[in-house]
Amino acid sequence: MSGNPLLAGLAPAHPGEVLREDILPAVNLPKTEIARRLGISRQTLYDILEERQPVTPAMALRFGRLFGNSAEFWANLQRDHDLRTLEAGMADELAGIEPIAA
Per the database record, which ranges form the HTH cro/C1-type domain (predicted)? Predict the structure, then answer.
């Protein structure tokens, strides 16, 4: 993948990291209240915050509504994280695929 060479080799942040490091400190609400407003269990929220669970499309809709941004923001964070993680794990396999010349 091309892009900023300063970011080369860095995987995009998991949405849970963004939520944990940036969003939750700014809203200053207890995690229990966040989970209640989202209509999810505290355990589900903690699993996302600890990057053990992905942000599903349904959760992206919930986060977008609660935090006043878009579901696309959350879904794109998850997609980018997933693709980069897979790309790193599949590097040898992908290197063995000969591209079709246009």
Answer: 28-74
